């Protein structure tokens, strides 16, 4: 209800300004103990060897710098995913770089992994008191050559490993040049082999095995999906997050900002993201967990992802259009019937 009143004011602002203001406003009452936790009945879900309080999570990208974990945890999520974080800080792409398409309940963004880098990111995380299930999404710096990308991911995995419940490997953002090349067979095989070997070393060093998740694009052909599924199985990756934003403009053609470069998220990507999710479910046959993301604007959309094979779902753009009440709505919709 409160978000419905605030939304017109937020939508009058530049989208990125509104995004930053919303996070600051969420933090403010927390400092004075005025932000009660959302009361969502537990509905535990087991995936990746972890037990989640409920199946609804926050997608990476909303809290890129792990600076608002405690406030976001009050919204009732079963888990949070923060990042994408890169080894070194970087400003991202030039502004403006985020655009609303309200008629389609969509967003186009070309943020470009803007973040404070691993050192400041981990300092932010150290200040958080929440101890729920936390995913940390890692990526490469924009100026790291694609043939050396594995070095950035390996450094990211090593640094975040002690702090993460799971680590998400983002090879699917359309806003870092050539990044999606890492989804191709040889490149992905080499990257996952390196990360799997490093994860084994880190598990021995830290005394616990942290799950790995791979975040993929919706713009994949059937052969690519099979190739990625084979690599996931071969290297013991624990989950696939399907999907990131799309380069397609199906469903938004002719709308203001539709032709801006960047990834499209929100309602128009729902059907394609769910189709890719279902294709991974068929290819993996339960050998890795699936996390459904992309176009969840109502509880029925979350339930559709679960029906397509997901164990968990993630929200981002839907929160911009619907506000925090969407979390509880989705949790109710995917709650197992007794």
Describe the structure.
With 338 residues, the chain is an alpha/beta fold. It has a single domain, classed as Aldolase class I (TIM Barrel), CATH 3.20.20. The protein is built from eleven helices and 13 strands. The chain has helices spanning 2-11, 15-31, 69-73, 117-127, 149-160, 185-206, 222-234, 270-284, 299-307, 317-322, 325-334, and strands spanning 45-47, 50-52, 56-58, 79-85, 98-101, 106-109, 134-138, 166-170, 212-216, 239-242, 263-266, 289-293, 312-315. The strands form three sheets. Strands 3-4-7-8-9-10-12-13 form an eight-stranded parallel barrel, surrounded by five helices. A three-stranded antiparallel sheet has the order 5-6-11. β8 (166-170), α6 and β9 form a beta-alpha-beta unit. The protein starts with a helix and ends with a helix. The model has no long low-confidence stretch (mean pLDDT 95).
Quick tags:
TIM Barrel; 17% strand; 13 strands; 11 helices; single chain; 8-stranded parallel barrel; alpha/beta; 3-stranded antiparallel beta sheet; 338 residues
* Count of runs of 4 or more consecutive helical residues: 11
Radius of gyration: 18 Å
Unreliable spans are none
Sheet-strand content, in percent, reads: 15-25%
Head-to-tail CA distance between termini? 29 Å
Number of structural units classed as domains: 1
Helix content: 25-40%
Quaternary form: single chain
Question: What is the CATH architecture descriptor?
Answer: Alpha-Beta Barrel
Total strands? 13
Largest sheet: 8 strands, parallel, barrel
């Amino acid at each position: 209800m409160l978000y419905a009143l605030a939304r017109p004011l937020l939508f009058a602002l530049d989208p990125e300004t509104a995004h930053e203001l919303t996070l600051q406003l969420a933090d403010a009452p927390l400092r004075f103990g005025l932000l009660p936790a959302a009361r969502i009945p537990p509905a535990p879900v087991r995936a990746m060897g972890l037990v989640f309080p409920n199946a609804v999570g926050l997608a990476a990208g909303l809290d890129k710098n792990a600076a608002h974990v405690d406030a976001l945890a009050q919204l009732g999520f079963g888990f949070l995913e923060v990042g994408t974080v890169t080894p070194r800080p970087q400003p991202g792409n030039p502004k403006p770089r985020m655009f609303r398409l309200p008629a389609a309940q969509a967003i186009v963004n070309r943020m470009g992994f803007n973040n404070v880098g691993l050192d400041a990111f981990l300092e932010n995380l150290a200040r958080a008191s929440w101890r729920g299930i936390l995913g940390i999404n890692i990526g490469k710096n924009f100026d790291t050559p694609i043939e050396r990308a594995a070095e950035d991911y390996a450094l990211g995995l090593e640094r975040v490993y002690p702090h993460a419940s799971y680590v998400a490997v983002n090879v699917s953002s359309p806003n870092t040049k050539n990044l999606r090349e890492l989804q191709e067979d040889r490149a992905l095989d080499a990257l996952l082999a390196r990360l799997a070997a490093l994860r084994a070393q880190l598990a021995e060093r830290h005394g616990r095995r942290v799950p790995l998740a791979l975040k993929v694009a919706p713009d994949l052909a059937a052969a690519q999906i099979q190739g990625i599924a084979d690599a996931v199985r071969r290297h013991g990756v624990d989950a696939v997050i399907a999907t990131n934003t799309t380069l397609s403009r199906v469903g938004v053609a002719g709308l203001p900002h539709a032709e801006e470069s960047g990834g499209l998220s929100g309602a128009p990507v729902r059907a394609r993201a769910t189709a890719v999710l279902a294709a991974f479910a068929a290819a993996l046959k339960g050998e890795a967990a699936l996390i459904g993301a992309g176009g969840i604007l109502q509880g029925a959309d979350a339930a559709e992802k679960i029906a397509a094979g997901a164990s968990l779902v993630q929200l981002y753009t839907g929160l911009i259009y619907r506000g925090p009440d969407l979390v509880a709505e989705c949790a109710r919709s995917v709650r197992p019937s007794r």
